[in-house]
Amino acid sequence: MLKKCVICGKKFNSKNGIITCSDICYEMRKKKILEKNELIRQNKLKREHKKCPVCSKMFEVNRNHLVYCSAECREVATKDKKKKYFKKYYSENRDKIIENNSINQRKRAKTKI
Ligand SMILES: [Zn+2]
Ligand SMILES: [Zn+2]
Fold first, then answer.
1. pTM, rounded to two decimals
2. Ligand 2 centre from 85 Cα, in Å?
3. Domain segments of the chain: what residues?
């Protein structure tokens, strides 16, 4: 079956529904598809907007900013996480922490006298 190559436009005898005339054109087509996919992927990423969970600002999602709008907001979020972790730790070990504090206070009181 005579077909027109989708890359160079040359007419060639196609077997098994091949749409490129040669290995070179086949590789070219493969590359073009990959490039197209990459462009679509990048455009998708470019167009995507998210709400920053820290400052509630809408921002454009990119490689550097996937969840938070800025490095500052990311830092705030991680600090907040630490605070939450400490709260959990505190609620679980409350008695121990209070006991240690009172022992320290007693020690301090003794040294004062
Ligand atoms: Zn060709
Ligand atoms: Zn933010």
1. 0.40
2. 21
3. 1-47, 52-113
